[in-house]
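Slack export, channel: ligand-projects

TW: morning all. Re-posting the request from yesterday since it got buried. We need the structure predicted with the small molecule present, not the apo form. The ligand is flavin mononucleotide; the SMILES is in the block with the sequence. No rush, but it would help planning for next week.
GE: picking it up
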Amino acid sequence: MDTFVNLISNISWWLWIIIVLVIIAIRDIIQKKHTISHNFPIVGHFRYMLEKIGPELRQYLVANNREELPFNRIERGWIYASAKKENNYEGFGTDRDIYAHQHIFINNAMMPYKVEDNHPHASDKTFLPCAKVIGAYNKRRKPYRPGSVINVSAMSFGSLSAKAVESLNKGVKIAGAYHNTGEGGLSPYHSYGGDVVFHFGTGYFGVRAADGGFSMEKMVQLVENNPFIRAIEVKLSQGAKPGKGGVLPGAKITPQIAEIRGVEVGKDVLSPPNHKAFSNVPELVDFIEAIADKTGLPVGIKAAIGKLEQWEELADIMVKTGKGPDFITVDGGEGGTGAAPPSFADHVSLPWVYGFGDLYKLFQSKELSERIVFIGSGKLGFPAKAAMAFAMGADCINVAREAMMSIGCIQAQVCHTNTCPSGVATQNKWLQNGIDPTLKSERLAQYFKTFRKEFIEITHAAGYEHPCQFKMTDIEVNVDDHNLSKELNNTYGYEKTVVPFNGIQNLKDCQYLGGKA
Ligand SMILES: Cc1cc2nc3c(=O)[nH]c(=O)nc-3n(C[C@H](O)[C@H](O)[C@H](O)COP(=O)(O)O)c2cc1C
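GE: finished. pasting the full C-alpha coordinate output, ligand included:
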Protein backbone atom coordinates (compact mmCIF):
# COMPACT_ATOMS: atom_id res chain seq x y z
CA MET A 1 0.00 0.00 0.00
CA ASP A 2 2.81 2.39 1.01
CA THR A 3 4.61 1.74 -2.28
CA PHE A 4 1.42 2.59 -4.20
CA VAL A 5 0.94 5.85 -2.26
CA ASN A 6 4.61 6.70 -2.82
CA LEU A 7 4.27 6.01 -6.52
CA ILE A 8 1.20 8.23 -6.80
CA SER A 9 2.76 11.08 -4.84
CA ASN A 10 5.87 10.92 -7.03
CA ILE A 11 3.94 11.51 -10.22
CA SER A 12 4.67 15.05 -11.35
CA TRP A 13 1.87 17.52 -12.23
CA TRP A 14 2.50 17.40 -15.99
CA LEU A 15 2.22 13.60 -15.95
CA TRP A 16 -1.17 13.98 -14.21
CA ILE A 17 -2.33 16.26 -17.03
CA ILE A 18 -1.24 13.67 -19.60
CA ILE A 19 -3.04 10.88 -17.70
CA VAL A 20 -6.28 12.92 -17.56
CA LEU A 21 -6.03 13.73 -21.28
CA VAL A 22 -5.44 10.07 -22.13
CA ILE A 23 -8.52 9.08 -20.08
CA ILE A 24 -10.65 11.73 -21.86
CA ALA A 25 -9.31 10.60 -25.24
CA ILE A 26 -10.15 6.95 -24.52
CA ARG A 27 -13.62 7.95 -23.34
CA ASP A 28 -14.14 10.08 -26.49
CA ILE A 29 -13.14 7.19 -28.74
CA ILE A 30 -15.34 4.66 -26.96
CA GLN A 31 -18.48 6.83 -26.86
CA LYS A 32 -20.69 7.06 -29.95
CA LYS A 33 -23.01 9.91 -28.91
CA HIS A 34 -20.88 12.76 -30.27
CA THR A 35 -19.29 11.99 -33.63
CA ILE A 36 -16.93 14.97 -33.58
CA SER A 37 -15.46 13.98 -30.17
CA HIS A 38 -15.15 10.40 -31.36
CA ASN A 39 -13.39 11.34 -34.58
CA PHE A 40 -11.25 14.07 -33.02
CA PRO A 41 -10.63 13.05 -29.38
CA ILE A 42 -9.97 15.96 -26.96
CA VAL A 43 -9.79 18.59 -29.74
CA GLY A 44 -13.49 17.99 -30.54
CA HIS A 45 -14.42 19.41 -27.13
CA PHE A 46 -13.19 22.85 -28.13
CA ARG A 47 -15.78 22.93 -30.88
CA TYR A 48 -18.60 22.24 -28.41
CA MET A 49 -17.22 24.80 -25.98
CA LEU A 50 -16.90 27.51 -28.62
CA GLU A 51 -20.36 26.74 -29.97
CA LYS A 52 -21.74 27.17 -26.45
CA ILE A 53 -20.12 30.53 -25.79
CA GLY A 54 -20.47 31.72 -29.41
CA PRO A 55 -23.51 33.97 -28.76
CA GLU A 56 -21.71 35.73 -25.88
CA LEU A 57 -18.52 36.13 -27.94
CA ARG A 58 -20.46 37.64 -30.80
CA GLN A 59 -22.58 39.84 -28.54
CA TYR A 60 -19.66 41.29 -26.55
CA LEU A 61 -16.77 41.22 -29.01
CA VAL A 62 -17.62 40.57 -32.62
CA ALA A 63 -21.05 41.91 -33.65
CA ASN A 64 -21.19 45.53 -34.69
CA ASN A 65 -23.48 48.05 -32.98
CA ARG A 66 -26.41 47.62 -35.37
CA GLU A 67 -26.06 44.01 -36.32
CA GLU A 68 -27.80 41.89 -33.70
CA LEU A 69 -31.40 40.73 -33.49
CA PRO A 70 -33.96 40.97 -31.99
CA PHE A 71 -32.43 44.12 -30.48
CA ASN A 72 -29.05 45.49 -31.49
CA ARG A 73 -26.49 46.99 -29.13
CA ILE A 74 -27.52 50.60 -29.81
CA GLU A 75 -31.17 49.82 -29.09
CA ARG A 76 -30.32 47.93 -25.92
CA GLY A 77 -27.90 50.66 -24.88
CA TRP A 78 -30.61 53.30 -25.37
CA ILE A 79 -33.01 51.38 -23.13
CA TYR A 80 -30.37 50.72 -20.44
CA ALA A 81 -29.23 54.36 -20.39
CA SER A 82 -32.81 55.70 -20.42
CA ALA A 83 -33.79 53.36 -17.57
CA LYS A 84 -30.82 54.52 -15.49
CA LYS A 85 -31.39 58.17 -16.38
CA GLU A 86 -27.90 58.25 -17.83
CA ASN A 87 -26.77 60.14 -20.91
CA ASN A 88 -28.55 58.34 -23.78
CA TYR A 89 -27.36 60.73 -26.50
CA GLU A 90 -25.08 59.88 -29.44
CA GLY A 91 -22.13 62.03 -30.39
CA PHE A 92 -20.85 62.93 -33.86
CA GLY A 93 -24.08 62.03 -35.70
CA THR A 94 -25.90 58.83 -36.53
CA ASP A 95 -23.98 55.63 -37.22
CA ARG A 96 -26.97 54.20 -39.08
CA ASP A 97 -27.22 53.78 -42.80
CA ILE A 98 -30.19 56.09 -43.22
CA TYR A 99 -30.68 54.91 -46.78
CA ALA A 100 -31.23 51.34 -45.58
CA HIS A 101 -34.44 49.39 -46.14
CA GLN A 102 -37.22 50.19 -43.62
CA HIS A 103 -35.40 53.20 -42.17
CA ILE A 104 -37.96 55.61 -40.66
CA PHE A 105 -37.99 59.37 -41.32
CA ILE A 106 -40.22 61.76 -39.43
CA ASN A 107 -41.06 64.90 -41.37
CA ASN A 108 -40.32 67.79 -39.05
CA ALA A 109 -42.25 71.06 -39.22
CA MET A 110 -40.55 74.29 -40.19
CA MET A 111 -41.28 75.54 -36.69
CA PRO A 112 -41.94 73.11 -33.84
CA TYR A 113 -45.03 73.11 -31.63
CA LYS A 114 -44.68 75.81 -28.99
CA VAL A 115 -45.25 74.76 -25.39
CA GLU A 116 -46.88 77.68 -23.58
CA ASP A 117 -46.13 78.29 -19.91
CA ASN A 118 -49.50 76.97 -18.78
CA HIS A 119 -49.30 73.79 -20.90
CA PRO A 120 -49.10 70.48 -18.98
CA HIS A 121 -45.82 69.72 -20.78
CA ALA A 122 -44.28 72.85 -19.30
CA SER A 123 -44.40 71.28 -15.84
CA ASP A 124 -44.34 67.56 -16.72
CA LYS A 125 -42.37 66.74 -19.83
CA THR A 126 -43.34 63.07 -19.64
CA PHE A 127 -47.14 63.32 -19.43
CA LEU A 128 -48.59 61.40 -22.34
CA PRO A 129 -51.92 59.64 -21.79
CA CYS A 130 -53.89 57.78 -24.45
CA ALA A 131 -56.04 60.07 -26.60
CA LYS A 132 -58.94 57.62 -26.62
CA VAL A 133 -61.02 56.17 -23.79
CA ILE A 134 -61.24 52.40 -23.89
CA GLY A 135 -64.86 51.29 -23.63
CA ALA A 136 -66.34 54.74 -24.26
CA TYR A 137 -68.13 53.89 -27.50
CA ASN A 138 -69.70 50.75 -26.07
CA LYS A 139 -70.70 52.61 -22.93
CA ARG A 140 -69.03 50.11 -20.60
CA ARG A 141 -69.73 50.81 -16.95
CA LYS A 142 -66.03 51.35 -16.15
CA PRO A 143 -64.34 52.89 -19.20
CA TYR A 144 -60.59 53.44 -18.99
CA ARG A 145 -58.17 55.93 -20.48
CA PRO A 146 -54.61 54.64 -20.08
CA GLY A 147 -52.50 57.22 -18.33
CA SER A 148 -49.56 56.43 -20.56
CA VAL A 149 -49.32 55.64 -24.27
CA ILE A 150 -46.56 53.14 -23.48
CA ASN A 151 -47.38 50.18 -21.28
CA VAL A 152 -46.16 46.75 -20.23
CA SER A 153 -47.23 44.02 -22.65
CA ALA A 154 -48.54 40.57 -21.72
CA MET A 155 -45.91 38.48 -19.91
CA SER A 156 -47.04 35.98 -17.32
CA PHE A 157 -45.81 35.22 -13.84
CA GLY A 158 -44.27 31.88 -14.65
CA SER A 159 -42.64 32.98 -17.81
CA LEU A 160 -41.18 35.87 -15.76
CA SER A 161 -39.90 35.61 -12.20
CA ALA A 162 -41.82 36.88 -9.19
CA LYS A 163 -39.24 39.65 -8.65
CA ALA A 164 -39.50 40.74 -12.29
CA VAL A 165 -43.31 40.89 -12.18
CA GLU A 166 -43.14 42.82 -8.91
CA SER A 167 -40.64 45.28 -10.43
CA LEU A 168 -42.86 45.81 -13.47
CA ASN A 169 -45.98 46.35 -11.40
CA LYS A 170 -44.30 48.81 -9.03
CA GLY A 171 -42.72 50.46 -12.06
CA VAL A 172 -45.97 51.05 -13.93
CA LYS A 173 -47.41 52.49 -10.75
CA ILE A 174 -44.62 55.09 -10.67
CA ALA A 175 -44.93 55.75 -14.41
CA GLY A 176 -48.75 55.88 -14.49
CA ALA A 177 -48.91 53.11 -17.06
CA TYR A 178 -50.68 49.73 -17.07
CA HIS A 179 -49.37 46.24 -16.60
CA ASN A 180 -50.76 43.42 -18.72
CA THR A 181 -50.73 40.16 -16.73
CA GLY A 182 -50.01 37.79 -19.61
CA GLU A 183 -51.53 34.34 -19.69
CA GLY A 184 -50.57 33.07 -16.25
CA GLY A 185 -53.36 34.57 -14.17
CA LEU A 186 -53.27 37.34 -11.57
CA SER A 187 -50.51 36.76 -9.01
CA PRO A 188 -49.73 38.61 -5.76
CA TYR A 189 -46.86 40.24 -7.70
CA HIS A 190 -49.37 42.03 -9.97
CA SER A 191 -50.96 43.63 -6.95
CA TYR A 192 -48.59 46.43 -5.94
CA GLY A 193 -50.94 49.15 -7.11
CA GLY A 194 -50.26 49.63 -10.82
CA ASP A 195 -53.21 49.53 -13.25
CA VAL A 196 -53.65 46.01 -14.54
CA VAL A 197 -55.05 44.68 -17.78
CA PHE A 198 -56.08 41.12 -17.04
CA HIS A 199 -55.16 38.89 -19.97
CA PHE A 200 -56.11 35.29 -20.58
CA GLY A 201 -55.74 32.81 -23.38
CA THR A 202 -56.97 29.32 -24.11
CA GLY A 203 -55.64 28.00 -20.78
CA TYR A 204 -57.97 30.41 -18.88
CA PHE A 205 -55.41 30.58 -16.06
CA GLY A 206 -56.87 32.49 -13.14
CA VAL A 207 -60.42 32.20 -14.49
CA ARG A 208 -60.37 28.47 -15.18
CA ALA A 209 -63.36 26.22 -14.54
CA ALA A 210 -62.92 22.66 -13.28
CA ASP A 211 -63.24 21.31 -16.85
CA GLY A 212 -60.43 23.57 -18.07
CA GLY A 213 -62.87 25.99 -19.72
CA PHE A 214 -63.73 29.59 -18.86
CA SER A 215 -65.47 30.43 -15.58
CA MET A 216 -67.51 33.64 -15.66
CA GLU A 217 -68.04 33.32 -11.93
CA LYS A 218 -64.29 33.42 -11.29
CA MET A 219 -63.89 36.31 -13.73
CA VAL A 220 -66.49 38.40 -11.91
CA GLN A 221 -64.99 37.50 -8.54
CA LEU A 222 -61.49 38.38 -9.70
CA VAL A 223 -62.57 41.80 -10.94
CA GLU A 224 -64.58 42.50 -7.79
CA ASN A 225 -61.69 41.53 -5.52
CA ASN A 226 -59.09 43.48 -7.50
CA PRO A 227 -60.37 46.93 -8.44
CA PHE A 228 -57.00 47.79 -10.00
CA ILE A 229 -57.98 45.60 -12.98
CA ARG A 230 -59.00 48.20 -15.54
CA ALA A 231 -59.61 46.16 -18.68
CA ILE A 232 -59.69 42.59 -19.90
CA GLU A 233 -57.80 41.22 -22.89
CA VAL A 234 -58.77 37.95 -24.57
CA LYS A 235 -55.78 36.49 -26.35
CA LEU A 236 -56.60 34.96 -29.71
CA SER A 237 -52.98 34.68 -30.78
CA GLN A 238 -49.57 36.32 -30.43
CA GLY A 239 -47.04 37.22 -33.09
CA ALA A 240 -44.39 34.70 -32.07
CA LYS A 241 -46.67 31.66 -32.31
CA PRO A 242 -50.15 32.28 -33.73
CA GLY A 243 -52.36 29.19 -33.68
CA LYS A 244 -49.87 27.39 -31.46
CA GLY A 245 -51.27 27.96 -28.00
CA GLY A 246 -48.88 28.51 -25.12
CA VAL A 247 -46.03 26.51 -23.60
CA LEU A 248 -44.68 26.94 -20.10
CA PRO A 249 -41.82 24.48 -19.61
CA GLY A 250 -42.19 22.15 -16.59
CA ALA A 251 -38.88 23.42 -15.18
CA LYS A 252 -40.58 26.76 -14.52
CA ILE A 253 -43.67 25.38 -12.74
CA THR A 254 -43.14 25.98 -9.03
CA PRO A 255 -45.82 25.09 -6.42
CA GLN A 256 -46.95 28.74 -6.33
CA ILE A 257 -47.28 28.98 -10.12
CA ALA A 258 -49.07 25.63 -10.17
CA GLU A 259 -51.55 26.94 -7.60
CA ILE A 260 -52.22 30.22 -9.40
CA ARG A 261 -52.70 28.45 -12.72
CA GLY A 262 -54.44 25.35 -11.41
CA VAL A 263 -51.88 22.96 -12.97
CA GLU A 264 -49.32 20.33 -11.84
CA VAL A 265 -45.86 21.17 -10.46
CA GLY A 266 -42.94 20.43 -12.82
CA LYS A 267 -45.04 19.39 -15.83
CA ASP A 268 -45.04 21.32 -19.12
CA VAL A 269 -48.21 23.43 -19.39
CA LEU A 270 -49.62 23.56 -22.87
CA SER A 271 -52.52 25.89 -23.58
CA PRO A 272 -54.37 24.56 -26.60
CA PRO A 273 -54.57 26.52 -29.88
CA ASN A 274 -58.36 26.95 -29.65
CA HIS A 275 -60.67 28.56 -27.15
CA LYS A 276 -63.35 26.44 -25.50
CA ALA A 277 -65.53 29.47 -24.70
CA PHE A 278 -66.28 30.27 -28.36
CA SER A 279 -65.70 28.65 -31.69
CA ASN A 280 -66.59 31.28 -34.28
CA VAL A 281 -66.70 35.04 -34.71
CA PRO A 282 -70.33 35.66 -33.63
CA GLU A 283 -69.69 33.61 -30.49
CA LEU A 284 -66.53 35.62 -29.83
CA VAL A 285 -68.56 38.83 -29.94
CA ASP A 286 -71.15 37.33 -27.57
CA PHE A 287 -68.34 36.23 -25.24
CA ILE A 288 -66.82 39.72 -25.18
CA GLU A 289 -70.20 41.31 -24.52
CA ALA A 290 -70.98 38.85 -21.73
CA ILE A 291 -67.71 39.59 -19.92
CA ALA A 292 -68.12 43.34 -20.37
CA ASP A 293 -71.69 43.12 -19.13
CA LYS A 294 -70.86 41.06 -16.03
CA THR A 295 -67.70 42.95 -15.04
CA GLY A 296 -68.44 46.43 -16.37
CA LEU A 297 -64.90 46.59 -17.76
CA PRO A 298 -63.78 47.26 -21.33
CA VAL A 299 -62.89 44.03 -23.13
CA GLY A 300 -60.49 43.71 -26.03
CA ILE A 301 -58.72 41.07 -28.07
CA LYS A 302 -55.08 40.46 -28.88
CA ALA A 303 -54.00 38.82 -32.11
CA ALA A 304 -51.33 38.48 -34.72
CA ILE A 305 -52.57 39.20 -38.23
CA GLY A 306 -52.51 36.97 -41.29
CA LYS A 307 -55.71 36.20 -43.22
CA LEU A 308 -58.41 38.85 -43.07
CA GLU A 309 -61.67 36.96 -43.77
CA GLN A 310 -62.62 36.42 -40.13
CA TRP A 311 -61.62 39.97 -39.25
CA GLU A 312 -63.98 41.19 -41.97
CA GLU A 313 -66.72 39.03 -40.46
CA LEU A 314 -66.00 40.62 -37.07
CA ALA A 315 -66.14 44.12 -38.57
CA ASP A 316 -69.46 43.35 -40.28
CA ILE A 317 -70.96 42.08 -37.02
CA MET A 318 -69.74 45.21 -35.26
CA VAL A 319 -71.39 47.42 -37.87
CA LYS A 320 -74.63 45.45 -37.74
CA THR A 321 -74.96 45.05 -33.97
CA GLY A 322 -73.08 48.05 -32.62
CA LYS A 323 -71.26 45.59 -30.33
CA GLY A 324 -67.74 44.17 -30.22
CA PRO A 325 -64.29 44.61 -28.72
CA ASP A 326 -63.36 47.90 -27.11
CA PHE A 327 -59.74 47.52 -28.13
CA ILE A 328 -57.65 45.41 -30.46
CA THR A 329 -54.02 44.68 -29.71
CA VAL A 330 -52.14 43.87 -32.88
CA ASP A 331 -48.97 41.89 -32.24
CA GLY A 332 -46.33 41.76 -34.95
CA GLY A 333 -44.72 38.56 -36.21
CA GLU A 334 -41.45 39.94 -34.82
CA GLY A 335 -42.94 39.73 -31.31
CA GLY A 336 -41.24 37.93 -28.46
CA THR A 337 -42.28 34.95 -26.39
CA GLY A 338 -41.24 32.86 -23.40
CA ALA A 339 -41.00 29.79 -25.63
CA ALA A 340 -41.96 29.00 -29.24
CA PRO A 341 -40.77 26.79 -32.09
CA PRO A 342 -38.58 28.78 -34.52
CA SER A 343 -40.74 27.69 -37.46
CA PHE A 344 -43.58 29.67 -35.88
CA ALA A 345 -41.57 32.57 -34.48
CA ASP A 346 -39.80 33.08 -37.80
CA HIS A 347 -42.59 32.53 -40.31
CA VAL A 348 -46.20 32.51 -39.09
CA SER A 349 -48.08 35.88 -39.15
CA LEU A 350 -47.19 39.23 -40.67
CA PRO A 351 -44.68 41.72 -39.28
CA TRP A 352 -46.34 44.55 -37.38
CA VAL A 353 -46.42 47.19 -40.12
CA TYR A 354 -48.04 44.89 -42.66
CA GLY A 355 -50.43 43.20 -40.24
CA PHE A 356 -51.53 46.40 -38.56
CA GLY A 357 -51.87 48.26 -41.88
CA ASP A 358 -54.10 45.53 -43.31
CA LEU A 359 -56.30 45.37 -40.22
CA TYR A 360 -56.63 49.10 -39.75
CA LYS A 361 -57.54 49.63 -43.40
CA LEU A 362 -60.26 47.00 -43.10
CA PHE A 363 -61.83 48.53 -39.99
CA GLN A 364 -61.47 52.00 -41.43
CA SER A 365 -63.31 50.98 -44.61
CA LYS A 366 -66.25 49.94 -42.38
CA GLU A 367 -66.03 53.24 -40.46
CA LEU A 368 -65.07 51.45 -37.26
CA SER A 369 -61.63 52.89 -36.61
CA GLU A 370 -62.93 55.63 -34.35
CA ARG A 371 -64.71 53.37 -31.92
CA ILE A 372 -61.80 50.99 -31.37
CA VAL A 373 -58.64 51.68 -29.39
CA PHE A 374 -55.77 50.20 -31.38
CA ILE A 375 -52.79 48.94 -29.41
CA GLY A 376 -49.57 47.91 -31.12
CA SER A 377 -46.80 45.57 -29.99
CA GLY A 378 -43.75 44.20 -31.77
CA LYS A 379 -40.46 45.99 -31.18
CA LEU A 380 -42.21 49.36 -30.97
CA GLY A 381 -40.54 50.49 -27.74
CA PHE A 382 -38.53 53.30 -29.33
CA PRO A 383 -39.84 56.82 -29.93
CA ALA A 384 -39.39 56.88 -33.73
CA LYS A 385 -41.01 53.47 -34.12
CA ALA A 386 -43.86 54.62 -31.89
CA ALA A 387 -44.31 57.74 -34.05
CA MET A 388 -44.64 55.51 -37.10
CA ALA A 389 -47.14 53.28 -35.28
CA PHE A 390 -49.24 56.26 -34.22
CA ALA A 391 -49.16 57.65 -37.76
CA MET A 392 -50.56 54.33 -38.93
CA GLY A 393 -53.42 54.44 -36.41
CA ALA A 394 -52.10 52.99 -33.13
CA ASP A 395 -53.40 54.65 -29.97
CA CYS A 396 -51.10 52.92 -27.47
CA ILE A 397 -47.92 50.86 -27.49
CA ASN A 398 -47.31 47.72 -25.46
CA VAL A 399 -43.71 46.69 -24.79
CA ALA A 400 -42.52 43.34 -23.51
CA ARG A 401 -38.82 42.70 -24.14
CA GLU A 402 -37.93 46.39 -23.94
CA ALA A 403 -39.55 46.46 -20.49
CA MET A 404 -37.58 43.33 -19.55
CA MET A 405 -34.34 45.04 -20.63
CA SER A 406 -35.13 48.10 -18.55
CA ILE A 407 -35.15 45.85 -15.47
CA GLY A 408 -31.93 44.06 -16.35
CA CYS A 409 -32.56 41.50 -19.15
CA ILE A 410 -29.39 41.08 -21.22
CA GLN A 411 -31.01 39.38 -24.23
CA ALA A 412 -29.48 36.01 -23.34
CA GLN A 413 -32.43 34.45 -25.22
CA VAL A 414 -32.87 31.58 -22.78
CA CYS A 415 -36.37 32.44 -21.46
CA HIS A 416 -37.46 28.87 -22.34
CA THR A 417 -34.78 27.13 -20.21
CA ASN A 418 -35.23 28.52 -16.68
CA THR A 419 -31.56 29.60 -16.69
CA CYS A 420 -32.01 33.32 -17.42
CA PRO A 421 -28.79 34.84 -16.03
CA SER A 422 -30.44 38.17 -15.17
CA GLY A 423 -33.15 36.53 -13.04
CA VAL A 424 -35.91 38.15 -15.13
CA ALA A 425 -37.25 35.06 -16.93
CA THR A 426 -36.50 32.23 -14.51
CA GLN A 427 -38.01 30.68 -11.41
CA ASN A 428 -34.53 29.82 -10.05
CA LYS A 429 -34.39 31.48 -6.61
CA TRP A 430 -30.64 32.12 -6.69
CA LEU A 431 -30.81 33.88 -10.07
CA GLN A 432 -33.83 35.96 -9.02
CA ASN A 433 -32.06 37.10 -5.87
CA GLY A 434 -29.99 39.54 -7.90
CA ILE A 435 -33.11 41.61 -8.64
CA ASP A 436 -33.95 44.46 -6.29
CA PRO A 437 -37.59 45.30 -7.13
CA THR A 438 -37.41 48.79 -5.65
CA LEU A 439 -34.45 49.75 -7.85
CA LYS A 440 -35.75 47.93 -10.92
CA SER A 441 -39.22 49.45 -10.65
CA GLU A 442 -37.60 52.88 -10.78
CA ARG A 443 -35.68 51.76 -13.88
CA LEU A 444 -38.85 50.64 -15.67
CA ALA A 445 -40.56 53.89 -14.71
CA GLN A 446 -37.59 55.94 -15.86
CA TYR A 447 -37.46 54.10 -19.21
CA PHE A 448 -41.16 54.86 -19.74
CA LYS A 449 -40.70 58.49 -18.74
CA THR A 450 -37.67 59.00 -20.97
CA PHE A 451 -39.50 57.27 -23.80
CA ARG A 452 -42.52 59.54 -23.40
CA LYS A 453 -40.33 62.63 -23.11
CA GLU A 454 -38.50 61.87 -26.36
CA PHE A 455 -41.75 60.86 -28.03
CA ILE A 456 -43.29 64.18 -27.00
CA GLU A 457 -40.23 66.05 -28.29
CA ILE A 458 -40.44 64.27 -31.66
CA THR A 459 -44.17 65.07 -31.76
CA HIS A 460 -43.45 68.72 -31.08
CA ALA A 461 -40.72 68.74 -33.73
CA ALA A 462 -43.35 67.58 -36.21
CA GLY A 463 -45.55 70.50 -35.16
CA TYR A 464 -48.04 68.54 -33.06
CA GLU A 465 -49.13 68.47 -29.46
CA HIS A 466 -49.99 64.75 -29.12
CA PRO A 467 -48.75 61.81 -31.19
CA CYS A 468 -52.37 60.92 -32.02
CA GLN A 469 -52.13 63.81 -34.51
CA PHE A 470 -49.47 62.10 -36.59
CA LYS A 471 -50.69 61.39 -40.12
CA MET A 472 -49.40 58.82 -42.58
CA THR A 473 -47.82 61.63 -44.59
CA ASP A 474 -45.70 62.65 -41.62
CA ILE A 475 -43.59 59.53 -41.73
CA GLU A 476 -41.54 58.10 -44.55
CA VAL A 477 -39.85 54.72 -44.75
CA ASN A 478 -37.35 53.35 -47.19
CA VAL A 479 -39.27 50.54 -48.86
CA ASP A 480 -39.83 47.53 -50.22
CA ASP A 481 -43.35 48.23 -49.09
CA HIS A 482 -46.21 45.80 -48.67
CA ASN A 483 -47.41 46.42 -52.23
CA LEU A 484 -44.12 45.17 -53.56
CA SER A 485 -44.22 41.92 -51.60
CA LYS A 486 -46.06 39.33 -53.61
CA GLU A 487 -47.74 36.04 -52.83
CA LEU A 488 -45.89 32.93 -53.99
CA ASN A 489 -48.34 32.30 -56.89
CA ASN A 490 -47.59 35.72 -58.34
CA THR A 491 -43.89 35.30 -57.81
CA TYR A 492 -43.50 31.85 -59.36
CA GLY A 493 -46.42 31.94 -61.80
CA TYR A 494 -48.36 28.81 -60.91
CA GLU A 495 -50.98 27.51 -58.47
CA LYS A 496 -50.20 24.19 -56.85
CA THR A 497 -52.50 21.25 -57.51
CA VAL A 498 -54.81 20.67 -54.55
CA VAL A 499 -53.62 17.73 -52.45
CA PRO A 500 -56.54 15.41 -51.58
CA PHE A 501 -56.87 15.50 -47.79
CA ASN A 502 -59.52 13.95 -45.60
CA GLY A 503 -58.40 14.63 -42.08
CA ILE A 504 -55.43 13.55 -39.99
CA GLN A 505 -57.33 10.50 -38.69
CA ASN A 506 -57.44 9.08 -42.23
CA LEU A 507 -53.67 9.44 -42.46
CA LYS A 508 -53.26 7.81 -39.08
CA ASP A 509 -55.50 4.88 -40.08
CA CYS A 510 -53.63 4.33 -43.34
CA GLN A 511 -52.17 0.84 -43.65
CA TYR A 512 -49.07 2.23 -45.32
CA LEU A 513 -48.25 4.66 -42.53
CA GLY A 514 -44.58 4.46 -41.60
CA GLY A 515 -42.77 5.49 -38.45
CA LYS A 516 -44.61 3.05 -36.17
CA ALA A 517 -41.63 0.84 -35.39
C1 LIG B 1 -41.08 36.36 -21.82
C2 LIG B 1 -42.29 36.71 -22.64
C3 LIG B 1 -43.55 36.23 -22.26
C4 LIG B 1 -44.68 36.55 -23.02
N1 LIG B 1 -45.91 36.09 -22.62
C5 LIG B 1 -47.01 36.41 -23.34
C6 LIG B 1 -48.31 36.01 -22.91
O1 LIG B 1 -48.48 35.39 -21.86
N2 LIG B 1 -49.37 36.36 -23.70
C7 LIG B 1 -49.23 37.09 -24.85
O2 LIG B 1 -50.20 37.39 -25.51
N3 LIG B 1 -48.00 37.52 -25.24
C8 LIG B 1 -46.91 37.20 -24.52
N4 LIG B 1 -45.68 37.66 -24.93
C9 LIG B 1 -45.61 38.55 -26.11
C10 LIG B 1 -45.54 40.02 -25.70
O3 LIG B 1 -46.64 40.37 -24.90
C11 LIG B 1 -45.49 40.96 -26.91
O4 LIG B 1 -46.71 40.87 -27.60
C12 LIG B 1 -44.37 40.68 -27.88
O5 LIG B 1 -43.19 40.27 -27.24
C13 LIG B 1 -44.05 41.91 -28.73
O6 LIG B 1 -43.60 42.96 -27.93
P1 LIG B 1 -42.03 43.35 -27.79
O7 LIG B 1 -41.48 43.37 -29.17
O8 LIG B 1 -42.08 44.67 -27.13
O9 LIG B 1 -41.38 42.28 -26.98
C14 LIG B 1 -44.54 37.35 -24.19
C15 LIG B 1 -43.28 37.83 -24.55
C16 LIG B 1 -42.16 37.52 -23.80
C17 LIG B 1 -40.83 38.06 -24.21
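GE: first-pass observations. The chain has a mean pLDDT of 92. The two ends are 55 Å apart (CA to CA).
TW: perfect, thank you
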